[in-house]
Amino acid sequence: MQTEDATPLVPGQTKLVKAKTRRGKRFLESRAPKAIEDAKRALFLYGNQTSQIVKDVLTDLYQLKRLEAQKFTRKNENIRPFEPGGETSLEFYCSRNNCPLFVLGSHSKKRPHNVVIGRLFDFHLYDALELGVEEFKAIRDFGAAGTGAQLGNKPCVIFVGEKFESVPALALAKSLLLDMFRGEPVDKINLAGIDRVLMAVAEGDTRLQLRQYSIRFKKSGTRIPKVALTEMGPRVAFSVRRYRLPPSDLQQDAMKQPKLGKKKEKNVSSDALDGKVGRIYMPKQNMDTLGLSKYKGTKRERREGAREAAEARKRPKAAKAAAVADGGGDAE
């Protein structure tokens, strides 16, 4: 039975890992499932063989997601997401680096300049899409076109073409690209912070264009500025190859949504008319120290009372002095 301070098993692991320190406990809690997930990290890695074009494509894609990504520079053998058992090493690497997304680059005679984009659920391979690079122009070839874009800002993602809704492979590509570049989940977006556009165009059933533009605001004579788009790279033309859809049982588990309970409000209840009734607790007030308004009449009464009190204090003294004087006369 899994405990609160234990992390789930990963491929190749035979026992649960329990936290021994507070720091370890915080680390395991950060890896645990959350009702509202953080930004999805992506792992960029190479297969057994690769080409310079594939390296350049993965480098530019990594630049687009650098804040939420991890990149391997060495070649990795026996990573074949579309073959049985070929995903074991991939699941292990993604689990160790906390990356539910991956981009795998490879090259062979049968599938030249190959790029595989995929997702994992519970660090098990969920789905994957295989693309072939046909045309490519790197970010560095566009010069200073993208200097205005800031790292970490959310891009505006646009999909052009009805094939993204009707062709299963392109529908999967749309879902993967949205997961890849959505960034941190937020409630509000500052429109001034949207400084780039990522555009995906479906050309037929088996071709996909991916381009990126920088947004520049120019004067228009009105309150609404004129928007100008400048291509900043990368520019990639993909051909759609193989794709892998998730198993039905894994898809059913992934689609489950937790029921977020309402936060309980203290001292608040509902009445018969479904209205809110609140209970307020007030501290006891000391009426003796309560500040009140001072009127002239009350001031006159206080002066008279003070005068009478002073006269009352003088009377005993005068009577005592008279008694002493009378007593002295008798003694003589």
UniProtKB/TrEMBL annotation:
Biased composition (Basic and acidic residues): 301-313
Span of the signal peptide: none
Keywords of the record: Nucleus
Superkingdom: Eukaryota
SMART domains xrefs: Brix (SM00879)
Stored InterPro entries: Brix, Rpf2
Gene Ontology molecular functions: rRNA binding
Disordered: annotated span: 247-270, 288-332
Domain Brix residues, every copy: 40-249
Localization annotation: Nucleus, Nucleolus
GO cellular component, one term: nucleolus
GO BP term, pick one: maturation of LSU-rRNA from tricistronic rRNA transcript (SSU-rRNA, 5.8S rRNA, LSU-rRNA)
Family, per entry: Belongs to the RPF2 family.
Protein known as: Ribosome production factor 2 homolog
Species, as recorded: Volvox carteri f. nagariensis
